[in-house]
């Protein structure tokens, strides 16, 4: 209903009747006509007359009275006035002055006690008048949201108005839109009707000048209020770019206040205003709430890492670094994501949760990597990654992760290079660079960790020599300060691990050569330059001078790592475009020491290795013949060189496994489709055949995932996600291609930054029909049995030909099948010679007229295996002939080993074959070592606290199912040479998988222990791990041992923080055990190597939660009952118990993540924790203290949030592949909390535990992972905030809502009156 401006009111105002009386009369006049109070229509009416038809002082007084009596809404009236008065402030200075007075009184008044219809009208009017939706790029959701934007709009408008009045303008800033932004000089001389009635009287001029200062004064008074800071903080947290604009305005004023005289008188006002606004980012609520949660969340470890000894338990808060690095050394688990990326996110996460400085964070990271290397000073025997992979982490992965962190700082603060410390190269260093330098300097205090392993002592000495040479040249004033190289001189001693670390950082431009001058960097044992005798010239210098790749030079280059990218680039171009003889030699050199020990350029070497696997099609190439055939010798060399256990693991650490898989697929498709002819056969033993090149590529490809396991078994646990499959690898590779094309270098991915693939298009398995056909057939063979042979099927015809070849060879030379072998030479590539020692000529002669492609052979092999295994089972084929036939098949086509492995693994699980006696007559006997292996297994398990029955041979005859017997008997016939690592890397994991899934690990282990005596300890440890795949009780016990070794025993009151606990207690100081001694392995290492064998991963989840809560309760009870003086106060007791609970939760989160990755963390959020709160628990007799209940809830919350941060990251953007699932999983858990707080779910836990859990969880998310909050539904956040307010945790409620994004801004504004 339209409201008319009453004539009586005009008369009353003219008679100077009290404005309050007039307002009351107006209220009575409005009420009966059905208008709401506050009345939006009345506000529109009054402001329209006031601006500027009835610009009478009495009407302003009436407006003030109407606002104070709540007849009008302050936000509505001020919004109406703002859009009208500010643009006309120069022609209407009196109105502007009165507007500022109203603003100072009512700008922070906000009342929601009005009808919904009034709210909607006021919201629409405020939005329209100030154009808030257009200015801030989002629709205004509610009146609270409008209030926040209105206040921020007022602040920026008044500052812009004063700047405009003083003749200052910032052209780079966006001004508020609409009429408010139209503060141009035209309005200074033109009134609201456009007539040129210039106000030049002295009174108006003085008023204009005073108004501009008064506007700043009003802002200064307003921003002193806590309410104003809260409103500005909402903008700072949820619209940072807008808040940055406000900061830039204030900085502009501060910069110009000394230049313009009219600003000098406002200096103090501007300083106070600027100080008020700068309080916003660091503002802390000061409400009357409990301080308990703040104390728990802000607790820090007692001893900083910089002051601790490397073995002490004070580094416990950094144990996730150690666990991740040690877990990454598991050769059976290839990382699907670059370790650089994962470690980068861990750096950010642990810095936040440990409330550490960058110096402490970097130092802890270096110490963890050094401990990783020191654990393998004496490498253990066995087919596992060795020292090269650990040095890769220390000297390549860690520096590259730190490089990501430093680059992030440069992106966030581009001006960081313009301030701070300047290095010798003139480069400016920011906070993180300086922290890195400081951490490297502090490394010198940890001499126990810096002693280099014997194999790299020379490299450490060369690094020290380079520094000594640099210093000497610098002091002598010679040109070319960097000319000294580690090969120009030789030192007998003085080098340590810090010298290698510093060189790794200098080579990546993280620091400069001023590090050479650090005090104590070069020890007294480093001789002076005058005493250094020249050493032999570097072979790489000879190579770069153009020397041909002779055998002698190639051998030196192979064993000497390159020192520069230029050397590697030249080698790459020779491997790709050199002569026919040079290309394989260059490829071999590339996979030598430069890849394994070229730490300063390792990411570049990895890049070139991957690129060589997929050479580009040369220009002008036409015809059906593949260009890959021309590169066959080079490809054979690169495949063989990259197939070693350590090399594959290094590629995995750099995160290029998906790219390797995509590169290997066209090689398999091409060479597997070629039919060998007499012209393709090798003329010399060192020449690769088509079968050999295919086998190298095919077996390499299959090593990248568990090809021998059913799909349902490939997702129980592992690493940071599910086990790999070929489809998943291609999916990862394709997603990286898409990301690189869409946003170039938005997120760095270590060496991935430099990879440019032969094809930047997605790759799918359907592109390779032969490979896809085998892939499908392999899945079918694993899932079901095979049909019998028939003559009409082409595949079966091929199988019959292969059977004929095998039987023909059996009849020719049975006696020589195992004993006539001689080791092959150390050539650059594997030759076509046999794998097991039997001659191959007979089989090839038999197949001379029936040459088959590799794919044809592989397709028929399962039927060949079915036939000969059945014949052996029926007694028509002896066990010796069976193994001889399998060896002959592998000698003929080494790739057939994959099919044999897959087929026998599947048949083992079916249980259809009868057992055979392992008596030494028909099949090999393990009796010679069986008892010792069983005894050492029991002793090893007992040493880590595992006491469960294990299978024992006893007096029963030793029997194995026929497929198991055939598989293990076949594998022990393989020669153990470096040239056959590509064979052992395929059968080893498959054989261990078979052993762990059955009751015969000791028989299998004993057979291998007899063959390779130096692997005895490795075999005992591997056999011992199988118990965790068969016994849940064993899993419980090893987990408890991990907690005990790290935290001390709950039953020993003196074991809370001893030197035997902590990281050294958990992971040990050394892995290898001397030969002849029963092997020992630390509980943590044992668990990390065994957790993927555990079939029920949910049980692991439950056990970790139980152990965390148990240790938290018991430690709290122990501290509370302690008689020591330091825990006499409840606050001290709580702090000490919280430190202990934090250590417990950190260990639990770390073990949980390595056990099952994001799948297990997802289960923790969705099922495990909710179920724990809903379930009745059996507790020990005796009363549990309130402190123990609180600490229990805190420990659970800390473990939950920390484990989520490990797999999802803490920022609004994350490099981790599981980041996209974060919002959904967190939302599910938050919904559970909200439903409980609403009373929709009843719990069975102690109320103190529940309250501590909820409060600590919210507080940890707010302080450590605020980006998570915006991914939760606003309604859920509002419910949580209401529950927290009910517990008088108002600070938490505000902190939660203010970080909820645009959608929750209004909720905070509605609660603003609660703030004093």
UniProtKB/TrEMBL annotation:
<dbReference type="InterPro" id="IPR039638">
    <property type="entry name" value="MED33A/B"/>
</dbReference>
<protein>
    <recommendedName>
        <fullName>Mediator of RNA polymerase II transcription subunit 33A</fullName>
    </recommendedName>
</protein>
<dbReference type="GO" id="GO:2000762">
    <property type="term" value="P:regulation of phenylpropanoid metabolic process"/>
</dbReference>
<dbReference type="GO" id="GO:0016592">
    <property type="term" value="C:mediator complex"/>
</dbReference>
